[in-house]
Design brief:
The protein is an alpha+beta fold. The chain has a domain of 178 residues: Arc Repressor Mutant, subunit A, CATH 1.10.10.10. Helix content is 48%, strand content 7%. It contains 41 helices and 14 strands. The strands form five sheets. Strands 8-9-10-13 form a four-stranded antiparallel β-sheet. The chain has a three-stranded antiparallel β-sheet with strand order 1-3-2. Strands 4-6-5 form a three-stranded antiparallel β-sheet. Strand 2 and strand 3 form a beta hairpin. Helix 10 crosses helix 16. The N terminus and C terminus are likely disordered. The chain binds a DNA duplex through helix 10 and helix 16. Keywords: Activator, Cell cycle, DNA-binding, Nucleus, Repressor, Transcription, Transcription regulation. Its main location: nucleus. It comes from Toxostoma redivivum. Belongs to the E2F/DP family.
Length: 881
DNA sequence: CGCTCCCGCCATGCC
DNA sequence: GGCATGGCGGGAGCG
């Protein structure tokens, strides 16, 4: 190798040079490395040097399909380096020779391009996040290694981490089974539960301080006596088949990965610094652990972190402490699922659902497992779940049809989880989580503006999720949805409209109203005020709801974007800058001066409220959606979609900037809150979307998430209703929608009227959902989706919204969620069937299109909501189905 | 200079 | 002994 390189020159990276060399020599090159016979055997010619070279070859060799696939993947994926993809492509496609070498060299090889994170992305790109139950994908390590042009060793690194999260399971010797993220939420939940047991105390203690979790890290050490326990979840091995053993040392990477994830899940701040993690993982509390050991651990953690980052579960941030800044990672994945689930389970006999439906080799996911799904979903919402009654409903509902866990492992996990859970509950008292009733607060808050719903950024997301499910549905919900009344509910189990016991909401059978909440501008306040009632719970709720970020934010504030601008945290500004750097994430940053610091109180409450609403919705609607929808996604939605998005992008650039912006502005956004009125019986075709918030910001829709929702039932606080002006319009369809009738004008008029009522708030009416799928498919540029693509709403909307531009970055932060009602007319779509063919379709078809897409997105993305969506869009654009 | 983390040697353990 | 795994840490890329 050296020889080569040297000759070539490339002092730095052999790789760079190589391309040329390889190509040339390749033919001849034989050398390959002898090192491991095996390897050699596997792949005959791989050039050790240039992974890319292999790639090229393979690609070229590969069928066109593959090629396309790859391309798409790259394009769509938010891969860190956009460049990278380019380079790759170029490389792949072209075979360059020496002449250009220099250039190429520069482009490609760099070390970054060979990073584990990138490799992992490529790896993940090869498999669907949510594979159909039917398709069981087996992964051949050798094959993947050769395709990706890396050594098998690297694949192990990736697979081990994925396995720890049950995204894959080992089937046999060189074979792994791809499960996708169907079980991710469950797994995370379990890990959370396990983590709470192990590290919970620590966290608890710490969380008060929060400021920078880091601190607590130390505590943890102290506290955790046995952190080391081992693998919390054994499932890793249990896999379906082989399971070979657990031999080897415990497979540290796997275990480390689980523990690492647990730390995030248990951490209130969701930020874990590497050193703390390393210390904890070292098990010992030995502070003194040798330095070398520590170093090694950290290295491993980087490996794990890279994979998790690729999965969109965490992102790199820097924590600034007194001493200086330390590398840390922030959890941006779904957070809450667990609780809900747990709760649910608790009620019911645990795990039943899960069991083994799938046992087979790889599992399938699927089915019914109501429990789980719910869990997940709920979880997402969750934390905030309101009443038990509600929950139950939820639980009953099948959120997503598929999902399911696979196998025994799952069951094990579940059991474990349940156990943990109980314990936890006892200790902690689930109460916190559980009770939250925010909804009320929302309504009341009248703030001034309009309805005054308090917006929570997060809320928005949740909504989305809810939506998703409905849409998705495998259940066919969509069609049903049209009727407000039951569909969803029916699915759910109950679905009956009624008052929710503890909640202040009224549930309308048909889904007459739907509230969406977005953060207000005001939300800036990082803290939510407790509005009306929830106060007490509020805090808790807030956490739950927003959990990740918002709540804590205050202290650390990282995210906040949506709502909170951070309070005043000291953290101050320094951090903010961070965001720029790569991603938006700076931990500290939060502060941003948001513009108006008003703190209205509401925000917090709002959020919570929103959450509740969502949950409710879910219940109602959920039935439908779930299937695809991932539980995860739901959660994700909430708080962090931004984060997620950002994550995705992170690595490279923040393409969009939106995120940045949003984050930067802490305030960002506002997330608009909307009231959605579904067509009730009388109004059948109308859907109203009111922005609860102030007009201005309110409207922005975020493209990303957007998926419309169809909510069968809407929960509205009774009182609230009174205060809200309802607008009725005759139905009109969105322009996009195929149906011409309503034409905008009509709509517009309607809107205006509304607006008048509401003040500026724009009202959005449409029968169809408005989706904002990203605008055009064009995204090429963006690495992934920009956080929120501009929405495309009817012109009218835009106007109304003028204050906020749809496109404006601000909006981005919040995805707009569209709520879609389902119209009777619309044929029931199956999620799949629906598939958005074209973007256009998207817009056009009222319900069906949007929905499906939407939900899918949701599903898919948990973390990457936007991205997935975009991808789809893009794809569709690119190639019509 | 320090953070990252790629690379691949080599131990472990099954067959 | 062969081979699959994967622990481990040297040392280089990179900011």
């Amino acid at each position: 190798e050296n020889i080569f390189d040297r000759s070539r020159m490339a002092p730095k990276t052999p790789i760079k040079n190589e391309p040329i060399d390889l190509s040339k020599q390749k033919g001849c090159t034989p050398e390959r490395n002898p090192i491991t016979p095996v390897k050699i055997i596997d792949r005959p010619q791989p050039d050790p040097w240039t992974p890319t070279a292999n790639l090229k070859i393979l690609v070229s060799a590969a069928s066109p399909d593959m090629r396309d696939r790859e391309k798409k993947k790259e394009l769509f994926r938010p891969i860190e380096n956009s460049e990278q993809s380019d380079t790759l492509d170029s490389l792949q496609y072209d075979i360059v020779d020496d002449s250009t070498v220099d250039e190429f060299e520069k482009q490609r090889p760099s070390r970054k391009q060979k990073s584990l994170g990138l490799l992992c992305q490529k790896f993940l790109a090869r498999y669907p996040n949510y594979p159909l139950s039917t398709e069981k994908t087996t992964i051949s390590l050798d094959e993947v290694a050769s395709i990706l042009g890396v050594e098998r060793r690297r694949i192990y690194d990736i697979v081990n981490v994925l396995e720890s999260l049950q995204l894959v399971s080992r089937v046999a010797k060189n074979q792994y089974c791809w499960h996708g993220r169907h079980n991710l939420s469950q797994t995370l939940k379990m890990l959370q539960n396990a983590g709470e047991l192990q590290y919970g105390e620590l966290m608890t203690c710490q969380h008060k301080e929060l400021d920078l979790e880091y601190k607590f890290g130390e505590r943890k050490k102290a506290i955790i006596p046995d952190s080391q326990d081992r693998p919390l979840l054994d499932f890793s091995e249990s896999d379906c088949i082989s399971a070979s053993a657990n031999s080897r040392k415990d497979k540290s990477l796997r275990i480390m990965s689980q523990k690492f994830v647990m730390l995030f899940l248990v951490s209130k701040t969701k930020i874990v610094t590497l050193d703390i993690a390393a210390k904890i993982l070292i098990e010992e509390t030995q502070d003194t652990v040798d330095h070398s050991k520590f170093k090694t651990k950290v290295r491993r953690l980087y490996d794990i972190a890279n994979v998790l980052t690729s999965l969109g579960l965490i992102k790199k941030v820097h924590v600034t402490e007194e001493r200086g800044r330390k590398p840390a990672f922030k959890w941006i994945g779904p957070v809450e699922f667990p609780e809900n689930t747990d709760e649910l389970r608790g009620h019911s006999p645990t795990s039943d659902p899960l069991p083994e439906t799938q046992k087979g080799a790889c599992a399938q996911y699927q089915t019914s497992a109501t429990g789980k799904q719910r869990f997940t979903r709920h979880a997402s919402f969750n934390t905030a779940q309101p009443c038990e009654a509600t929950r139950r409903k939820v639980s009953s509902e099948p959120n997503s049809p598929h999902q399911e866990r696979q196998d025994e492992n799952c069951s094990k996990m579940i059991n474990l989880a349940s156990v943990c859970r109980q314990k936890i509950e006892e200790d902690t008292g689930s109460a916190k989580k559980s009770n939250i009733t925010l909804p009320v607060s929302l309504l009341p808050v009248p703030g001034d503006s309009d309805f005054s719903v308090n917006p929570l950024p997060q809320a928005v997301f949740p909504v989305v999720q809810a939506d998703v499910p409905s849409f998705s549905l495998p259940i066919g919900i969509s069609s049903q949805a049209s009727h407000p009344s039951m569909p969803a509910a029916s699915k759910t189990e109950n679905g009956k409209p009624t008052l929710v016991p503890n909640q202040p909401f009224l549930c309308f059978p048909s889904s007459s109203l739907f509230m969406l909440c977005g953060g207000l501008q005001e939300n800036n306040l990082s803290e939510p005020l407790p509005t009306v009632g929830d106060l007490g719970s509020r805090s808790a709720e807030a956490q739950a709801a927003v959990p990740p970020t918002v709540c804590q934010k205050r202290s650390s504030q990282k995210c906040s974007s949506p709502s909170a601008p951070g309070d005043d945290e000291e953290p101050a500004a320094k951090k903010q800058t961070l965001e720029h750097s790569d991603l938006p994430i700076s931990l500290v940053v939060p502060k941003k001066p948001s513009e108006s610091p008003k703190a209205e109180s509401s925000p917090g409450s709002v959020c919570s409220a929103a959450v509740h609403l969502e949950t409710n919705n879910l219940d109602l609607a959920s039935p439908s959606a779930p299937e695809t929808a991932n539980k995860e996604s739901t959660k994700l939605l909430d708080c962090q979609e931004q984060g997620k998005q950002s994550q995705k992008k992170d690595p490279d650039d923040p393409p969009p900037g939106n995120e940045h912006i949003s984050k930067e502005n802490a305030n960002q956004p506002f997330q608009p809150q909307y009231l959605y009125v579904q067509p009730t019986a009388g109004l059948s075709s109308f859907n109203f979307l009111f922005s609860a918030n102030q007009a201005p910001g309110a409207i922005s829709l975020a493209a990303n998430q957007l998926p419309s929702l169809s909510v069968p039932c809407v929960m509205v606080p009774s009182a609230a209703l009174a205060s809200f002006p309802l607008v009725c319009s005759s139905s009109f369809t969105s322009p996009l929608s195929p149906v011409p009738d309503g034409s905008f004008s009509a709509a517009a008029s309607t809107n205006f009227s509304m607006s008048s009522l509401a003040s500026t708030t724009p009202v959005f009416l449409s029968t169809t959902a408005v989706v904002t799928p990203k605008v055009s498919p064009t995204p090429s540029a963006d690495p992934q989706q920009p956080p929120h693509p501009a929405l495309h709403l009817s012109p009218v909307l835009t106007r109304s919204c003028s204050a906020v531009k749809l496109d404006s970055p601000v909006c981005m932060g919040h995805p707009v969620t569209l709520v879609k009602l389902q119209q009777p007319s619309s044929a029931p779509l199956t999620p799949k069937s629906i598939r958005p063919a074209h973007h256009e379709a998207f817009f056009k078809t009222p319900g069906s299109l949007g929905d499906p897409v939407a939900w899918r997105k949701n599903e898919g993305n948990q973390t990457r909501n936007a991205s997935s969506v975009q991808r789809r869009l893009e794809i569709s654009s690119t190639s019509p189905d």
